[in-house]
């Protein structure tokens, strides 16, 4: 379990909207922001200095590797070893992008690097000089995921990212100090969450990230091919129906064809560029990757909740549930009557955002009200996503469980049963609440089934998680958020 996500804007006392307006992502510093730098977006970056710097760094790196492979007479010779050195990428954690798993990852390992170099050498011998060659080859490696592509991109563009960070920091009056990165000194903000050591923050332009880089996403190529039937037909004529690839063996077969067939390879390189979609929309944040820091800052002042009866005193176990109930009642009012429902949808106000966004929205609101009322209560969850445990921060270890689900979640009934089981078996849980946001595909039968599960549990076990139904359907007229 972890506490509340702390974003760059929260840690540095900024507004998230100002950071986004300056072109940077407001990532969380103590949990995952599962977005990844896609080097194929470098040439489209809106910041002109970063665009020129990163695009050139990307092209130069792979041009150098290909030139070395062309010079190499045998594996392990001087040129080959230098190519390996240029294809060595370690993980750089200062951007705080990617999957947080307790370790900072492995970067590019020896096996992956050797495989890429051997296949690139064969492609170079065909006459290919396209820097995107390595992105195509990455598609056919079974152990290349978005984190490895992002590691590679961060390493290649590190100086460009650092210079971008310095410019944004000066624009927003963020304190900066000297940090040594990759043998060069940069002026960067210090991460205030790291105690006992100096660690920099490296900001990332918001228009060079995707939720899955093209080079790690085979389905993106298939989608592009469906929109470019003539190109698909030409590629298929060269290497068969590659769009149905599922297994590692099939990937290897197609890769072997590509590195021996220049026309097929050139077509795949073109298709890779065709597949590059728009960057992830950080401002709309459909997936709920960005913690709503500005809402967290503003909600208690704009829509206050009076919990003064619980302020400044040691809470008893029963008080915890009473506070949570007050917050849930207020959350229902905010969603149904005060326009917060809009934050559960994309900007079109009809397309529902992912459940993670709804869970983080509730988490931020609950944390804001606990903080504003100086209540000795700390909501915790797995990175602000999933079930929320409200725990007394001192004294009694009793807790209240709250889980937020969208009504169209196919696991809605199973989720209630699992939470019910966890609640009943947890000796120190004094109450549990299951919040259902009605956002479509919620039949009367499903509602009755949930209520039946609750009633049966009460009869058989003596207690059950309470169910809260909240109308989060789009309202006919715009209301203030």
Rg of Cα set: 26 Å
Mean of residue pLDDT values: 86
Give the N-to-C terminal Cα separation: 30 Å
Helix content: 40-55%
| Element order: H for helix, E for strand | HHEHHHHHHEEEHHHHHHHEEEHEHE
Largest sheet: 5 strands, mixed
As a percent range, the share of strand residues is 5-15%
What does the overall shape look like?
A: globular
Count of helix runs:
17
What is the structural class? alpha/beta
Let me know the number of strands: 9
Describe, in short, the structure shown:
The chain is α/β, with parallel strands linked by helices. Helix content is 45%, strand content 11%.
List its traits:
481 residues; alpha/beta; 2 domains; 5-stranded mixed sheet; two-stranded antiparallel sheet; 9 strands; globular
3D architecture notes:
With 481 residues, the chain is an alpha/beta fold. The chain has two domains: 8-274, no CATH class; 293-471, no CATH class. The chain contains 17 helices and nine strands. It has helices at 8-11, 16-21, 48-71, 78-86, 110-126, 133-139, 146-156, 158-171, 218-227, 229-239, 248-258, 262-274, 293-302, 317-337, 355-372, 412-425, 444-461, and strands at 36-37, 177-181, 184-188, 209-210, 377-382, 385-392, 399-406, 429-438, 466-471. The strands form three sheets. It has a five-stranded mixed sheet, with helices on both faces. Strands 1-4 form a two-stranded antiparallel ribbon. Helix 3 packs antiparallel against helix 8 (158-171) and helix 14 crosses helix 15. It is globular and about 80 Å long. Mean pLDDT is 86; it is low at 100-105.
């Amino acid at each position: 379990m972890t506490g509340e996500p702390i974003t760059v804007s929260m840690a540095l006392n900024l507004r998230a909207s100002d950071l986004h307006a300056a072109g940077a992502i407001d990532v969380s510093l103590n949990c995952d922001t599962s977005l990844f730098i896609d080097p194929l977006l470098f040439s489209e970056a809106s910041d002109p200095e970063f665009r020129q710097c990163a695009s050139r760094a990307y092209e130069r790196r792979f041009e150098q590797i290909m030139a070395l492979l062309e010079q190499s007479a045998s594996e392990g010779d001087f040129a080959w070893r230098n190519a390996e050195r240029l294809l060595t990428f370690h993980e750089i954690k200062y951007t705080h992008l990617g999957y947080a798993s307790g370790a900072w990852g492995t970067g590019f390992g020896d096996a992956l690097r050797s495989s890429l170099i051997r296949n690139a050498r064969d492609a170079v011998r065909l006459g290919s000089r396209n820097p995107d060659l390595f992105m195509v080859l990455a598609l056919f490696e079974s152990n290349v995921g978005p984190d490895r592509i992002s590691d590679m991109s961060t390493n290649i563009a590190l100086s460009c990212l650092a210079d971008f960070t310095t410019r944004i920091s000066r624009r927003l009056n963020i304190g900066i100090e000297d940090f040594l990165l990759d043998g060069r000194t940069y002026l960067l903000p210090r991460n205030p969450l790291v105690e006992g050591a100096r660690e920099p923050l490296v900001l990332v332009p918001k228009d060079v990230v995707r939720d899955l880089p093209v080079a790690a996403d085979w389905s993106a190529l298939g989608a592009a091919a469906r929109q470019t039937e003539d190109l698909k037909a030409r590629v298929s004529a060269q290497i068969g129906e590659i769009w149905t690839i599922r297994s590692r063996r099939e990937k290897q077969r197609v890769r072997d064809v590509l590195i021996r067939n220049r026309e097929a390879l050139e077509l795949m390189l073109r298709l890779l560029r065709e597949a590059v979609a728009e960057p992830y929309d950080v401002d709309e944040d459909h997936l709920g990757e960005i913690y709503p820091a500005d809402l967290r800052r503003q909600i208690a002042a704009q829509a206050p909740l009076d919990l003064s009866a619980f302020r400044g005193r040691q809470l008893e176990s029963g008080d915890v549930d009473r506070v949570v109930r007050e917050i849930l009642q207020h959350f229902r009012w905010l969603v149904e009557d005060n326009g917060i429902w809009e934050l559960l949808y994309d900007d079109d106000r009809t397309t529902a955002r992912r459940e993670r966004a709804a869970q983080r929205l509730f988490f931020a609101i609950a944390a804001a009200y606990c903080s504003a009322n100086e209540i000795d209560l700390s909501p915790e969850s797995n990175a602000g996503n999933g079930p929320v445990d409200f725990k007394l921060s001192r004294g009694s270890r009793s807790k209240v469980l709250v889980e937020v689900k969208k009504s169209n979640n196919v696991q809605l009934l199973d989720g209630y049963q699992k939470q019910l089981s966890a609640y009943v078996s947890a000796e120190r849980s004094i109450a549990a609440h299951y919040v259902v946001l009605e956002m479509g595909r919620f039949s009367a039968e499903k509602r009755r089934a949930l209520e039946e599960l609750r009633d049966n549990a009460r009869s058989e076990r003596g207690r059950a998680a309470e169910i809260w139904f909240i109308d989060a359907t789009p309202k006919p007229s715009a209301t203030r958020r």
